[in-house]
Specification:
About 0% of the residues lie in helices and about 40% in strands. It has two helices and 50 strands. The protein has a four-stranded antiparallel beta sheet with strand order 3-26-25-24, with no helix packed on it. Strands 4-5-6-7 form a four-stranded antiparallel beta sheet, covered by helices on one side. A hairpin with a 7-residue loop joins β22 and β23 (about 330). The relative contact order is 0.15.
Length: about 650
């Protein structure tokens, strides 16, 4: 996460129609791009051992396949998503494919009659045949806790299971190892799994990326707030302002779906979108009109069998087997649910509000290529060009926003600090405060969740007092001192190993802000200038000519600052700092969450806590909070603030 006069956000690691033949002939695979396993966050505990049993398919019981299959015409390939630094790959007009290939085995007890399959209603499901994995199981849905954590899930139509941790790192589930394994070193706010080993993702800058089974490529000129893909490879995104767009493989671009509006989106196999509006209404979109289905939700997912799952606004799971006409309640071990994704046979996996992962089924599949793919998954997932805010209204945070928030109040250990000088939520998801005792000695406390109080850190991370600090996922402390000169410290092993770095700034230094992102890149604002040191470099360089005050950072370069003159809140769009809202917002403190949630302490005619509303491009006021000295946002989207010597945490 990040911090400025504020602080950072926190993170903890927890996660056919595109026929293989067509894709193989159309994609220019890039060789020799291997990457180390992702290192963001601590590993989640391994799940207990249990058996994955998949009965053998009885070919006589599956839905009969059509005997005649038209020959698919593969048109001339077109270049797509080229990267100036890498070889471009190509995607043909047949991206969505012409067969609905058999990608799995139907299981005993699964629905075999086409009329009984969810979402059949006379359509072919977007392909020529319905693959066995697209038939809804008759078995009751029973969840198990797999003893893993994640912030989001993405299940593929053939049974791949992906997870994002709170830092945006991507993981793939291994049935053999019974845990999630790091998948490349990209960072995302959204990921969805398509057919034929493909993935689509959105980073926290709102840029869209495509994974072709080998590496990631940025989709040119595409930004999005949410994304969905069905079993046939149809892709739809929502953009800021609720605009819905569909990927056109003939032009290799996203094109506006007229009359459709939504914040979140999911797709039936025939390409029909279901959306969640900005007021949480679930709607079906057809013929340039979106109509309510009579339900409210904060998250939605559609499986390859066209079963629709929604998470209600009170965190309960519901399923529809008739394309949204009726919904049934699904039990989830008594847990409150935040996210859902659906895999083969209509079997869902969910994430609870506490980031616990629950599974209703384990999908038998060939995992022999997984390690090679995940370790060599290359490509730049930061990208360049335009940016957008990934919507956090419904499903990126466990906290339900309102204009009045309730808070729990805490003090420093034994109320020892007479002045609090900093609040940081580290990438280890721990909450730290920095303060002064009555004897003017600087100290650090950390919040003990079990005891629900701050306790002394237990060691001095820095050799001298620092103005600002931040913490990486492995517990590495970064701090910066000011005065006659400025020194940046990296402190490891509980302060036993300290390195120092200098800033390219003259004497008489005043430090305004500091932030560290999940990759180890460090930002410091000193004497109104923003400096940066990438993890691979030994020195700081000037980042911008703007005169700035505060700095805060979310995931994958989601950089926010305030101007020195006027304290206007700005966001880096990949080229320059721009105003994110329609109306100017001033702030004296700023915090950014890894899910994109932004809170600030406003200044001007009204001193209030405010939260950025990506949908409306505005800042919403929290009316029962006066000006806060420091602000940061935890992994559940809850703001922590400092008022005087009191530390306050918003309740769920």
């Amino acid at each position: 996460m990040m911090l400025t006069t504020l602080s950072p956000i926190s993170c903890r690691t927890g996660s056919k129609t595109l026929s293989t033949a067509v894709l193989a002939s159309a994609l220019a695979l890039i060789a020799g791009q291997s990457h180390a396993q992702s290192s963001s966050g601590a590993r989640t505990p391994q799940a207990p051992t249990y058996e994955v049993t998949v009965p053998q398919v009885d070919a006589t019981e599956t839905e009969p396949l059509e005997t005649e299959t038209p020959t698919a015409k593969v048109p001339k390939a077109k270049p797509l998503f080229s990267d100036e630094r890498e070889t471009s790959f190509e995607l043909t007009e047949g991206y969505r494919g012409s067969d609905d290939g058999d990608d799995g085995d139907a299981q005993d007890g699964d629905t075999q009659d086409g009329d009984s399959a969810a979402g059949s209603s006379g359509r072919s499901g977007g392909g020529l045949t319905r693959p066995p994995t697209a038939i809804t199981s008759r078995d009751p849905i029973t969840f198990v806790d797999i003893n893993e954590t994640a912030s989001a899930l993405a299940l593929g139509p053939e049974g791949r299971v992906f997870a994002l941790d709170t830092s945006g790192a991507l993981f793939i589930w291994s049935n053999r190892r019974r845990d999630f394994r790091a998948f490349g070193d990209g960072q995302f706010a959204r990921v969805v799994a398509g057919p034929d080993d493909t993935l689509w993702g959105i980073n926290t800058l709102g840029r869209v990326f495509f994974f072709n089974g080998s590496r990631w490529f940025q989709v040119p000129r595409a930004t999005a707030s949410d994304i969905a893909v069905n079993r046939n490879g149809d892709v739809v995104i929502t953009r800021q302002g609720e605009r819905v767009e569909r990927f056109n493989p003939d032009t290799n671009q996203f094109e506006v779906e007229r009359g459709f509006r939504g914040v979140q989106v999911a797709l039936l196999s025939d390409g029909t979108p279901f959306v969640i509006s900005d007021n949480n209404r679930v709607q079906r979109c057809e013929d340039q009109v979106c109509q309510n289905v009579g339900r409210s939700a904060q998250a939605i997912a559609i499986g390859p069998d066209d079963s629709i799952f929604i998470v209600s606004t009170d965190n309960r799971l519901f399923r529809s087997l008739d394309e949204g006409q009726t919904f049934e309640f699904i039990r989830t071990l008594g847990r409150d649910i935040d996210r859902v994704s659906v895999g083969p046979f209509g079997a869902p996996w969910v994430v609870t509000v506490d980031n616990e992962v629950l599974s209703s089924r384990f999908f038998d599949r060939d995992e022999s290529r997984d390690d090679r793919t995940r370790l060599s998954a290359g490509g730049d997932t930061v990208g360049s060009g335009a940016t957008a805010v990934v919507t956090s209204t419904q499903q990126s945070t466990g906290i339900v926003f309102s204009r009045t928030l309730r808070f729990d109040n805490f003090q420093s250990s034994n109320n020892r600090f007479v002045n609090i000088e900093g609040l940081v939520i580290g990438h280890d998801d721990l909450v730290y405060i920095q303060g002064r005792t009555a004897g003017f000695a600087q100290g650090f406390d950390v919040f003990d969740e079990r005891r629900r109080q701050f306790v002394p850190l237990g060691f001095d991370p820095f050799p001298q007092d620092v103005r600002r600090f931040d913490v990486e996922a492995d517990g590495t402390f970064w701090g910066v001192s000011d005065g006659a000169t400025a020194t940046v410290y990296r402190s490891r092993n509980r302060g036993q190993r300290v390195e120092s770095f200098s800033l390219p700034v003259g004497g008489g230094v005043f430090v305004n802000g500091m932030a560290v992102d999940a990759s180890g890149t460090v930002y410091v604002v000193a004497n109104r200038t923003l400096y940066v040191k990438e993890a691979s470099r030994r020195s700081f360089r000037q980042f911008s000519n703007e005169e700035l005050n505060l700095v805060a950072i979310g995931l994958a370069g989601n950089l926010w600052v305030t101007r020195f003159n006027g304290n206007e809140v700005l966001r880096f769009d990949g080229r320059r700092f721009v105003a994110p809202a329609r109306r100017q917002q001033l702030a004296s403190a700023l915090g950014v969450g890894l899910d994109g949630t932004v809170f600030a302490s406003s200044v001007g005619s009204n001193f209030n806590l405010v939260r950025f509303n990506a949908t409306n491009r505005s800042f919403d006021r929290v009316t029962n909070v006066t000006a806060a000295a420091f602000v940061d946002v935890d992994s559940r989207g809850r703001p922590w603030i400092v008022e005087g010597t009191q530390i306050r945490r918003a309740r769920d």
